[in-house]
Amino acid sequence: MKKFLQATGLIALLAVTFFSTEQTILVVKDMDDIMVELKQKSKAYEVKPQDAIIKEDTIVPGIAGKTVDINKSYVKMKQYGKFDPNLLIYKQLSPAETLDHHYKKFIVGGNPTKRMVSLLFRVSEADEIEKIRHILREKQVAATFFIDGNWLEQHVELLEPLIAEGHTIGNFSYHRNYKDSSFVWIDTIIKRIGKQQQSYCYAEKKEQAVIDVCHLYQDMTIVPTMVLKDQPLTELKKQLKAGSLISLPISDQVEQELPSMIQYIESRGYQLTNLGTHLKE
To answer: What whole-number distance in Å separates Cα of residue 60 and Cα of residue 53?
Structure first.
């Protein structure tokens, strides 16, 4: 019994000692000049998140914010022995309202403060996309391809290479009929074989029939900012703005004018990105 009490007392003493040591380390750390300066200045480097912009049945993505990770920043700066804002480490702050809370809203553009633009190519059953792919590779531009189910049946081997090149794949269902039961098959192929976590549906106007189906599978429904047809470059110059989602057919005219379109968009100071990047909050 005596030995048991001695052992218990030793354990209690060690626990108290450990706790006291931990508390001492925390106090010393809090009094460190680097930590004091970090706590004083960290608020100045915080960026508040912006919520998604919701207007009736439409939505534009918000933007994540950031806050300084005090402890990780301290450890990094301690190695250099001084406070340095270039060594700050941040934690992301998510908006309260995000796209994945609102699958029943139509996405009508990207957040304009990001100064991004996306090209959305409409790929029908008989379309050949190799010339478009070549131009995009040459210009180092990532885009989005909305693919028809019949096209996918004939070219399923192209799905992974397209994604590997940085492109996003959208679901056109069969002839844009989202009530076709095979829509789910296309969605599964995109998400499982293509390993693309998010899939997208397409509507040229706010079509309730499209979003009624797509939201059930947590697919985002895109309504493009502009739908270019016969004179894509001319139409683009008239309508281009930050956050534009630009819909294009696969056609000889688009193939001919695409390099000039890319050059014009970039000359306006916009970054061309795929939907996944453009809509990321």
So the answer is: 5
Question: 3 by DSSP, 3-state: which?
Answer: helix
Element (H, E) at 252: helix 252-267
Could you tell me the two tokens for 18? 């450990």
Task: Tell me, letter by letter, the H, E, C secondary structure of 157-224.
Answer: HHHHHHHHCCCEEEECCECCECCCCCHHHHHHHHHHHCCCCCCEEECCCCCHHHHHHHHHHCCEEECC
pTM, rounded to two decimals: 0.84
| Interval 181-217: pLDDT, tens | 899 999 999 999 889 999 999 999 999 999 999 999 9
Q: Of 194, 241, 203, nearest to 222 (Cα)?
A: 203
- Long-range pairs of 76-82 with CB within 8 A, sequence gap ≥ 24: 77/34, 77/38, 78/32, 78/34, 81/34, 82/34
- Six token digits for residue 19: 């706790």
Q: What pLDDT score does 75 carry?
A: 93
Report the alpha-carbon distance of residue 224 to residue 267 in Å, rounded.
22
122 DSSP β-pair partners: 146, 249
Give the mean pLDDT of the chain: 90
Tokens of residue 131, six digits: 């010339």
Q: How far apart are CA 130 and CA 135, in angstroms?
A: 9
DSSP strand pairing (53-55 vs 58-60): antiparallel
How many CB atoms within 10 Å of residue 132?
A: 21
Whether 116 and 277 have beta carbons less than 8 Å apart is answered as: yes
Task: State the amino acid at position 221 in one-letter form.
Answer: T
Longest CA span, the chain: 96
